[in-house]
Amino acid sequence: MKYYFEQEVRHNGLNKYRVVKAASSYELGQKVRALRAQWDEQWERKCSAENKRIERENKIKNNEESLDYANEMTEQAEELQEALDSILSDSLEPIPLDEKSMKDFTLFPIDAPSSPIKTDFRKEPKRTDEKYNPQAPFLTKLFKKRFELFNAENENNFIKDLASWNEDKIQFDENFARSIVKYHEKLAKWSKDKEEFLKEQSQKNGEVDCFIQCYNNGETDAIVEYYSLVLENIKLPFEYDRQVELELNSENKMLLIDLLLPTVDDIPKLKKVAYIKSKNEFKETYHTETYMKKKYDNIIYQIVLQTLNYVFTLDGSHNFIDSVVLNGKIKTIDKSTGKDIEPYILSINIAKKDFVELNLSAIDAKAWFKSAKGISASTFADVTPVAPIISMSHDDSRFIEGYNVADTLDDSINLAAKDWQDFENLIRELFEQEFNANGGEVKITQASRDGGVDAIAFDPDPIRGGKIVIQAKRYTNVVGVSAVRDLYGTVMNEGATKGILVTTSDYGTDSYNFAKGKPLTLLNGSNLLSLLEKHGHRAKINIKEAKKLLNQ
Predict the structure, then answer these.
(1) 408: helix, strand or coil
(2) Mind listing the pLDDT tens digit for each residue in 309-318?
(3) 55-64: Cβ within 8 A, 24+ apart
(4) Assuming Cys at both sites, which of 66, 73, 129, 511 could form a disulfide with 484, CB separation 3.0 to 4.6 Å?
């Protein structure tokens, strides 16, 4: 399935980052919201755990309820281990996507602006007010001139206050008029913002309705979106960065699931917390490595059954899906190179008609996986890569069109002196002939001369096949062990089942020793000439001549 939309999502508290991809803007929005909600929930739990840690330290300092706290932590650890054993049994009745929960019914978060209220302005001064008609002093009354001045002063005070009142009243009315204008401006903006909010909300909710309708109509993209949302949000008793990639073949109704599984280090291993009274401290005890490996295997097998149960149960009477191929991979580090890798550790193909006959409440997940011909190593903790039964589509932006070179070869052509790009295309063409007999295909990658992937073969053989990384080295010197290490790191990083290194020269002892026991094949110049002859081509390899030509 092709992804046309993507968005970066970060959580500063958890220090997590992921690029979320989707085939539609609606699916992208749903995935981003779900991921943010998941990370927010993880952050809350982390904060809660940190608060408990601080509480524990305070109890150590104060010597309060320390034994009770230790017993509580031990009880929680035991309950968690029990929950890990019941991942499958606790999820036997999957809940379908809730259409209402997918919609947004939140109210517009901003309150409407308040209409300004015109308060009573202070009372208008009147000439008859007591303030302007005070009782004249006795002596003032005796003298006419003084009495006239007294009354004139009161008149002036009134006139002055009335003028001031009129000015203030005009200002008051003007201010209120301006506040009314501003109110209507704010109200208009608020109304517009609310209208846009509700319009966007209605549009998103309409997309939900459309999505559900498309799913019910059996549209391929909608089915893939539906199960992407369902499977990425399955709750587990522990946390890990769960990721799912899906592809549906509508012709044979086969759903291909690439599921990122937890590593053994993601599994909680706390066994007991004891309080050491003499030291006034807590001591944590952890489960043994043997116990954790067995527990990890059980968890992985349960997750596989849980995932399949979600798909087949929710598909129910829709019958959009007849079978599922589930490829499980992990993110880890190749300890021999220090590079990040994503090897597949299991693969299984199961038909719906067979799965619905299982009694999941009493099943042994590992025994079922083996009986259903699932592919995996004997234990998952050792990280042994396996070939997926069916791989995701081979669309890769690195792939380019190749060109044929083999038909131009004869006994006079020195492969060790050939143009490096022609040499890479020759190797692609040669292995294409090798794998085509079994229905395989080989694609060449963009020329970079950086020692990376030169070609990728896809072999459909269910036992020895899968994704095969091929690197071509037109060398005139011995290939060093670093090139072999790089190939192995690329195989792990690509999730491939095998790596093939082809050179015109030869390999040193260190290279052969490193390749022992690993899914690597080293083909030297002699092997290359034999393979060419097998497919009807002839050439030569003359290292001395090539060195001279290349130096010139």
Answers:
(1) helix
(2) 999 999 999 9
(3) 56/282, 60/280, 60/281, 60/282, 63/280
(4) 511
- Please report, as a single letter, which amino acid is at residue 114: S
Q: Which residues are registered as beta bridge partners of 503?
A: 473
* Number of CB atoms found within 10 A of residue 82's CB: 10
- The strand order across the sheet containing 466-473 reads 399-400, 441-445, 455-459, 466-473, 498-503, 520-523
3-class secondary structure, 172: helix
The CA distances from residue 253 to 325, 351, 471, in Å, are 11, 10, 35
What amino acid is encoded at 545 in this protein?
A: E
Alpha-carbon distance 477 to 551, whole Å?
13
* Three-state SS sequence of 51-117: HHHHHHHHHHHHCCCHHHHHHHHHHHHHHHHHHHHCCCHHHCCCCCCCHHHHCCCCCCCCCCCCCCC
pLDDT digits (tens, 9 = 90+) for 493-529: 777 888 999 988 888 888 888 888 888 999 988 888 8
CA dihedral 362, 368, 369, 372 (to 10 degrees): -140
Residue 32 CB neighbours (<10 A): 18
Q: Which residue has the tokens 């104060």?
A: 62
